Amino acid sequence: MKAALPLILLAALPLPLLAANANAKPEIERAAASAQANAALHTVRQIPEACTRIEGRFTGDSAAPYDMQLVRTSEQCQPRAVFLDFTKVNPSEANGWKLNEVVHIPSAACSTQQALVEVWRKPAGQQLALDGQGQNRVYLEDAKAQAAAGRLAALPAYSAKLSVQGSCR
């Protein structure tokens, strides 16, 4: 019985993390998106700080009913945040991440099916100083001095997770 106790404890470890994420209240709450037809490419969410747009489409394939991809918004865009792979960072409130938004996208072809995209945000850890106009300005010489001293500020991070609820036959 003593040997089984550590296994039971290890199996129970992920449960508080799942429960913590299940109770997370999104920072942004919006109504569900309009219903999307199969193969219609649409923007799920745009994250200007990371120069990223999340695009999605219903595929009509029961094995993979929804396809989501990240698209860079512009080659000239200078990101002020990074977008990280959800499976590698495993965002949770316990790890300092905040549930930013849960986007609900219903299927037009199947009323019982919807895609859910959880967008998570991790703050940079320090508040950026704003000037008198309320803008964050980075001056080249100051940035070079900070880099030389090894004091570069961490960038905020974003991550997204896709899940599909319901099925069509």
Short structural summary:
The protein is of the alpha+beta class and 169 residues long.
Adjacency order of strands in the biggest sheet = 4-7-6-5
Largest sheet: 4 strands, mixed
H/E element sequence: HHEEEEHEEHE
Distance between the termini: 46 Å
Count of domains: 1
**Inertia-based shape:** elongated
Helix content: 10-25%
- The percentage of residues in β strands lies in 25-35%
> What is the number of helices?
4
- β-strand number: 7
Structural class: alpha+beta
Q: Could you name the ranges where pLDDT drops below 50 across 5 or more consecutive residues?
A: 1-20
Arithmetic mean of pLDDT? 83
Assembly level: single chain
Rg calculated over all Cα atoms: 20 Å
Can you offer a commentary on this structure?
This protein has 169 residues and is an alpha+beta fold. It has one domain. It is 18% helix and 29% strand. The chain contains 4 helices and 7 strands; from the N terminus they run ααββββαββαβ. A 4-stranded mixed β-sheet has the order 4-7-6-5. It has a 3-stranded antiparallel β-sheet with strand order 1-2-3, with no helix packed on it. β1 and β2 form a beta hairpin. The chain is elongated. The protein starts with a helix and ends with a strand. Residues 1-20 have low confidence and may be disordered.
